[in-house]
Design brief:
5 helices; 23% strand; globular
């Protein structure tokens, strides 16, 4: 499907939608399942914890991206399941409006596959992220079947990423690997170490203290 056809389709849909005046909140549909929600929260929590001292990125899940060249929020919009924009201010947003963000598009996008979205994620969305967004790293993952794939933009076209010996895929933009761990997608450092959640970090610290015969509950 071409961009022009996509616009026609979206304009047809939008005739039946009443948009409130002023700034719009994200207009994304409910998530497919609890597992989809857990996956998004896990990725967001880990990345924000790892980059807790950084203020030059924006990471979010299930948020609408408005990218109309005519600066209209009633056309040209997509809602990736998870995306990261680099070189931008770290603050809360109602939606990502490209023309209000210095023309920036996501550097990394991840779609979580489901029976109802897989064809779109692998087809139309992949085409848009490649040709319009020019997003450098694109991944998809199915938490039920464990299907996992990634692509990097090379000379304007997505090229499949080759997995490491551990089955991880490298994100040049994040400087991290993505890989499946205990059934969900996680981040890994360059040397293959799991990027922990804050809770996992606390548990590791507590275990270290116990090895030193220190009760962490008394600190």
């Amino acid at each position: 499907m071409t961009i022009a056809q996509e616009l026609d389709d979206q304009e047809g849909i939008c005739q039946d939608v009443i948009f409130p005046p002023g700034d719009l909140y994200s207009d994304e549909p409910p998530l497919e399942s609890e597992l989809h929600l857990r996956q998004i929260i896990l990725l967001l929590t880990c990345l924000e914890w790892l980059w807790r001292d950084r203020n030059d990125f924006y990471a979010v899940g299930n948020l609408t991206i408005y990218y109309s060249p005519r600066q209209r929020k009633s056309e040209y919009f997509r809602g990736p399941d998870f995306f990261v924009v680099l070189g931008t201010e770290r603050k809360t947003r109602k939606s990502w409006v490209v023309w209000e963000e210095d023309g920036k598009y996501p550097n990394v996008i991840l779609e979580i596959l489901s029976d109802s979205t897989a064809n779109t994620d692998k087809g139309l969305k992949k085409e848009i992220y490649q040709d319009t967004f020019r997003t450098l790293d694109y991944f998809w993952f199915d938490p039920y079947t464990q299907e996992f794939a990634g692509f990097h933009l090379v000379d304007g076209e997505y090229q499949p990423l080759q997995a490491s010996e551990q089955g991880y895929l490298w994100s040049q933009q994040l400087g991290l690997y993505l890989g499946v761990y205990e059934g969900l997608l996680r981040f890994f450092t360059r040397d293959g170490q799991l990027v922990p959640t804050p809770e996992e970090t606390a548990e590791r610290l507590a275990a270290k203290l116990r090895e030193l015969n220190i009760d962490p509950d008394t600190i």
